């Protein structure tokens, strides 16, 4: 900056403050979030793609800035006070006010339009056409207790909003409350006492790959052997029960784990194994399935199916077939097309297992 006479300096400072002051008082208006929905709801019917009353159409920027029937532009960039649009939406005269029908815009809506015009009346493409941008994490005050509440990046956004409103985060819900929420969400009913008790008694830490559950990625022999020993007998018992009641013929039981596991590990340490979609086992019982039949096998490492490999589509076709539905003709209308559960190409059921 050039040297200024000393007498001018306070004046310059005052103007800078004024500029900073106004830009801070107003948030950045978003066309997609704040303006488009408002114009669409209150203006497009008469100033939009179908109708341009007074030669004013507001759905596209070029047209919105163009000269209208009155000989002036409704929007004068960065000059809300000279913009006919703002004059008309804030007018109290019945014959001038826009929209001419229904309630006048609220002061907040008028304010948003004013800010939008001040900020250059930007139009944005629909967000699906915009390249994704990484957002920076919002700042929150690190009060020790709060920062431990932030377990993942999304929490930081929630905490920042809570802090802005002066609210503390809620403490984590108790296990019983979580179970109740899940049941309401998934089936709309509360858990039975027994289901609740089973969940509360289960002390295994869940949801982590190293844990003792079917999702275990580490120590597979220990973890999966334990799971197998806990589930084998109950499954055998339920099959036996179905048979004793004469229901097994009519009940198709399908069971499988989450994919198989890779034969080798890429972990720096430990015994972890990741998912393997090239070789894994599913089994079926009842429902017209020929018991004791095995189809296909993997190589000796279990890395991929080599002998008579079958696909998930073929499994689906087998299930549909056993339910009395023709997998290659059962369709559902979706996205303008008749779609099949087994994909476009015809698929045969795995006939070897059908009794
Ligand atoms: C029901 C139809 C209708 C709706 C809805 C409507 N307008 Fe209008 N608008 C008109 C008509 C008709 C005119 C021309 C007569 C007049 O100037 O009053 C007009 C004129 C205008 C003008 C003056 C154009 C010029 O030639 O200078 C502006 C600006 C305007 N409308 C803005 C809006 C805005 C902004 C909205 C939404 C908040 C809106 N209008 C909603 C029917 C409508």
Structure report:
The chain is mostly helical and 355 residues long. It has two domains: 123 residues, no CATH class; 134 residues, no CATH class. Helices cover 36% and strands 8% of the residues. It contains eleven helices and eight strands. Strand 5 and strand 6 form a beta hairpin. Helix 2 packs across helix 5. 13% of the residues are buried. Bound molecules: heme C. Keywords: Signal. Pfam families: DUF1501, PSCyt1, PSCyt2. It comes from Adhaeretor mobilis.
In terms of topology, how is this protein built?
Blueprint: H1 9-25, H2 31-42, H3 61-64, H4 84-90, H5 107-118, H6 145-149, H7 153-164, H8 175-187, H9 193-201, H10 220-244, E1 252-256, E2 260-261, E3 275-276, E4 282-286, E5 297-298, E6 305-307, H11 312-322, E7 331-334, E8 337-340
Antiparallel strand pairs: 1-4, 2-3, 5-6, 7-8
Helix pairs in contact: 2-5
The protein binds heme C (HEC).
Heme C is lined by residues 42-43, 45-47, 53-54, 56, 68-70, 72, 74, 84-85, 88-89, 98-101, 105.
Signal peptide: 1-25
GO molecular function, one term: heme binding
Keywords: Signal
């Amino acid at each position: 900056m050039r040297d200024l006479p000393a007498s001018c300096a306070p004046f310059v400072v005052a103007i800078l403050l004024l500029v900073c002051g106004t830009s801070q008082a107003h948030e950045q208006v978003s066309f997609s979030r704040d303006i488009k929905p408002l114009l669409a709801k209150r203006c497009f019917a008469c100033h939009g793609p179908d109708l341009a009353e007074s030669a004013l159409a507001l759905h596209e920027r070029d047209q919105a800035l163009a000269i209208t029937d009155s000989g002036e532009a409704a929007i004068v960039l960065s000059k809300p006070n000279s913009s006919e649009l703002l004059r008309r939406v804030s007018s109290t005269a019945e014959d001038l006010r826009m929209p001419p029908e229904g309630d006048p815009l609220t002061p907040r809506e008028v304010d948003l339009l004013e800010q939008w015009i001040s900020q250059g009346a930007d139009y944005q493409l629909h967000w699906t056409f915009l390249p994704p941008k990484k957002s920076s994490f919002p700042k929150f005050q690190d009060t020790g207790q709060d920062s431990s509440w932030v377990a993942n990046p999304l929490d930081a956004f929630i905490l920042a909003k809570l802090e802005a409103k002066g609210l503390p985060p809620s403490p984590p819900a108790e296990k019983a409350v979580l179970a109740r929420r899940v049941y309401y969400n998934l089936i709309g009913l509360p858990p039975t006492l027994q289901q609740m008790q089973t969940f509360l008694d289960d002390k295994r830490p869940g949801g982590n790959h190293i844990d003792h559950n079917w999702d275990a990625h580490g120590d597979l022999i220990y973890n999966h052997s334990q799971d197998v020993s806990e589930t084998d007998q109950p499954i055998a018992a339920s099959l036996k029960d179905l048979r004793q009641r004469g229901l097994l013929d009519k009940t198709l039981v399908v069971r499988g784990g989450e994919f198989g596991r890779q034969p080798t590990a890429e972990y720096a340490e430990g015994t972890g194994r990741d998912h393997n979609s090239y070789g894994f086992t599913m089994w079926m019982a009842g429902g017209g399935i020929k018991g004791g039949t095995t189809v296909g096998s993997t190589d000796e490492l279990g890395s991929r199916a080599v002998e008579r490999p079958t696909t998930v589509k073929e499994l689906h076709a087998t299930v549909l077939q056993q339910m009395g539905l023709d997998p290659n003709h059962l369709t559902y209308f979706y996205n303008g097309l008749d779609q099949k559960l087994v994909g476009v190409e015809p698929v045969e059921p795995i006939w070897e297992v059908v009794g």
